[in-house]
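Write out this protein's structure.
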Amino acid sequence: MVVLWTILGALLITVVLAFGITYFIVRPRLARKVNAGAEVLSRELHGRLPLLSSAASCEGCTDPDRFGLKGIGAIALTEQALVFVAGSTQDTVVIPREAVTEAVPVTSFEVLGKTVRRARPMLSVAWNDGNNFPQRIAFTLDDPMQWAAATPVAQPQ
């Protein structure tokens, strides 16, 4: 009987510690990253209100110069561009709306030989960069369907 109470006590302590670490350590760190991304995003937008904005997590980008984007940050859709700022590195990607070739929800995204899979859909955005190379980036956010519908796609010419 003593062994049973010892095991139950250890399980209770483990659960309380896991909750405490999540609530008092992990959650504030994530909130700081989102807030840092939102601050840089507001500077990027020069005080203009975006059409849509949200906390988001960049899952990867095919552009090798943008590895710093991966992680938690803030995303906004303006009349001119889709803008994402990573909260930890404050790296920014500005995708002009006329350069967007595709904006769709996906559950699987391949970037540089690695596949990112999620049970819930991610927003995948494809665009042609300044050198007319096709690029792709994926974001985990609250409502990828709304973002996909709100992001206009350039018509091929």
